[in-house]
Amino acid sequence: MIGLLDRPTKGKVFIDGIDTTKLNENKISSFRNKKLGFIFQFSNLLSDLTVLENVLLPRQIGGTNGSAEKDALALLKTVGLESQINKRANKISGGQAQRVAIARGLINYPSIVLADEPTGNLDSVTSEMVVQLMRSMAKKLNQTFIVVTHEPENFGVVDKIITIKDGRTFEEKQPSELEVIAWLI
Questions:
Q1: Mode of pairing for the β-strands spanning 180-184 and 144-149
Q2: What beta strand segments (E) does the chain contain?
Q3: Which is higher by pLDDT, 58 or 171?
Q4: What are phi and psi of 64, to 5 degrees?
Q5: I need a labelling partner for 5 at 20 to 30 A (CA). Which of 11, 12, 83, 139 fits?
Q6: What are the extents of the domains in the chain?
Q7: 14-184: which CATH topology?
């Protein structure tokens, strides 16, 4: 619901004070592109595009190219991939693809970033770098990261933990070994 991919059958979804349930499909698409970033469990890169082109895609879709290339290059440098910008997405490793997906999810500087297992396919060193990147972006740009993970130990101290078990949610102060942990960084 937060990603505006589904509409609620009851209730409303407010993001940045806007009742998104009142938006038509075109406005939802525009709102999603500007306010939400997505980091999928599997990178979902377009294999025929270069690393740089994949990161630039959300800006091109939104029609806000301004400083897009400069911003994309800065993000790719931050995730350690500045040397890979001209490679096709199908020619990089899985860990590199995930870091490209993270840069793509951040390119529009969204208010909320929804991350599904963002470190699931990464080695421990790269995982730590990704977590630190998300923390610094959250602080620097006042972003909220909602992270779903089965590896809560990778995220350390977070603002809020919501544990989901058997379709029910409840809060805990410390991570547990339950099914899914959603972290608000």
A1: antiparallel
A2: 14-15, 18-19, 36-39, 112-116, 144-149, 160-165, 168-171, 180-184
A3: 58
A4: -115, 75
A5: 139
A6: 14-184
A7: Rossmann fold (3.40.50)
